[in-house]
Amino acid sequence: MELCELDHIGIVTDDIKESAAFYCNVLNFKLIETREVDDMKIAYYTDGITKLEFLEPNNKKNIQKGIKHIAYRCKNIDKYAESFINNGIKIVNNKVNEYKGMKYIFSQISNDQGIELVEYKEEHEDVQR
To answer: Would the pLDDT of 68 be above 70?
Structure first.
């Protein structure tokens, strides 16, 4: 099993537009997608090399702002999921999830540290989530 490369960095904020302003205005990041999952707004920005995922909870009470997780691209995510489980590492939703031509798993490996692994289907290798 081998991790391929960094996919994105997930950052929790109480205001996506305010948090993304620096990246857009100074570093020329562009918005590539927005969506809402459960009780959270999500926006993806990229400069063509680095991808940032801003997460804005609808309930702003007691949120912990800052970097929430780092996501890596990988091959054969099912083997990683099995390895997580065999090593007692809980996977959120207890399964490999799918979204727009990719599979992913997320785990909170400590109170302040999360990791996400992402596998894109071959025909979607260049997909920006």
So the answer is: yes
Residue 73: CB atoms within 10 Å: 18
49-69 burial, b if ≥16 CB within 10 A, otherwise e? eebbbbbbbeeeeeeeeeebb
120 and 102 Cβ atoms separated by less than 8 Å: yes
Is-contact 67 44, C-beta < 8 A?
A: no
- Specify the pTM: 0.81
What the chain holds in terms of domains, given with CATH numbers, is 3-124 (3.10.180.10)
Give the sheet arrangement for strand 97-99, strand by strand. Answer: 30-37, 40-46, 51-57, 3-12, 66-74, 113-120, 102-110, 97-99
Q: Taking all residues of the chain, what is their mean pLDDT, rounded to a whole number?
A: 88
Rounded distance between C-alpha atoms, residue 28 and residue 50, angstroms:
11
| 72: nearest Cα among 124, 121, 9 | 9
The whole-angstrom separation of Cα 71 and Cα 113 is: 11
